[in-house]
Amino acid sequence: MKFPVYRPRRLRKNEKLRGMIRETDLSVNHLVYPVFVKEMSEKKVAIPSMPGIHQFSVDGVLKEIDEAIKLSIPAILLFGIPAKKDEMGSGAYDKNGIIQKAVRAIKKRFGDKILLITDVCLCEYTSHGHCGVLKGDTVDNDETLNLLAKSALTHVMAGADMVAPSDMMDGRVKAIREMLDLHGDYNVPIMSYAAKYASCLYSPFRDAAESAPQVGDRKAYQMDPPNEREALREIALDIEEGADIIMVKPALFYLDVLARARQTFNIPLAAYSVSGEYAMIHAAAAKGHLDFKRTVLESTMSIRRAGADIIITYFAKDIGKWAKENSL
Ligand code: PBG
Ligand code: ZN
């Protein structure tokens, strides 16, 4: 036979053809932009390990969210950093805590112009930096549940549109769901960090959120990176407990887990492209080793292709700008 029968290259000839058979689209509609709000007098403070990312005061955060809205970003994920921390992380469930104040201010200013998702965890608020309360040197699962549920309730009472527990305690989705159904709003969805790994990729975030554990690590509650089947089990449990959206985190090192989750479950799936992914791409681009825009777009697209409906990414504003210029 003289010629190959099949020539996939025929459909790669030009951009119009490639565009027509493209299987995955990247659009700003699927993005969530993480934002840090801190109790402080400065309007904003840069995070050295995360170029372009800042901690904001409540005042400063309004301006940042206004920019996100102008770029048509549909949602933000809000993290709070209190002025004072304590053993019990009491700032997390204080009606007048930083995140509760910020939520009220954001809702008052922007209403439904942006979907406001709040991170529910204790690590930003505890003096020891763990995601729950300590008994000896271990995080006490069941003692933590009620505090997480109370935190979620205060977020919802302040006006949060969705809550996202990131602590990895067993049973927290159920505890939060029950609390919201009884005392808050049964229509507020829960996006659970269902398969969250004990990853090396969180360290820039811990600078931004001031949430590094002061002793030990998070391996006794976050997942062990070599495990995939266990992720399916974690996700199944969160769905049983009432999660509306499930999440795999990090994204890039865990695309296999994301793809398995996509095949296995039919509920909306989120992926968190974490601070370390952001820092790596920025560092390589700053050195001239990688093209910034192409790397951001290809990596974000790969997360979509693996099956994420929702991508939480610090690149949301960059992608939003390129979308406005029609150059995605
Ligand atoms: C804390 C939390 C972490 C992230 C989101 N919530 C870090 C951690 O578990 O230490 C990571 C986000 C990122 O790296 O961008 N519960
Ligand atoms: Zn935490």
Task: Kindly describe this structure.
The chain has 328 residues and is an alpha/beta fold. It has one domain: Alpha-Beta Barrel (TIM Barrel), CATH 3.20.20.70. The protein contains 11 helices and 12 strands. Strands 1, 2, 3, 4, 5, 8, 9, 10, 11 and 12 form a 10-stranded mixed beta sheet that branches. Helix 2 (58-70) crosses helix 3 (98-110), helix 3 runs parallel beside helix 4 (141-158) and helix 8 runs parallel beside helix 10 (292-306). The longest helix has 18 residues, at 141-158. It is globular, with a radius of gyration of 20 Å. The model has no long low-confidence stretch (mean pLDDT 97). Bound molecules: ligand PBG and zinc ion.
What profile does the largest beta sheet have? Answer: 10 strands, mixed
The figure for the number of domains is 1
Helix content: 25-40%
CATH class: Alpha Beta
Total number of helices:
11
Question: Which spans of ≥5 residues are poorly predicted at pLDDT below 50?
Answer: none
Characterize the overall form: globular
**In the CATH hierarchy, what is the superfamily?**
Aldolase class I
Q: Overall pLDDT, averaged?
A: 97
Number of strands: 12
Amino- and carboxy-terminal Cα gap: 41 Å
The kinds of small molecule bound in this structure are:
ligand PBG, zinc ion
What's the architecture in CATH terms?
Alpha-Beta Barrel
> Which class do the helix and strand fractions yield?
alpha/beta
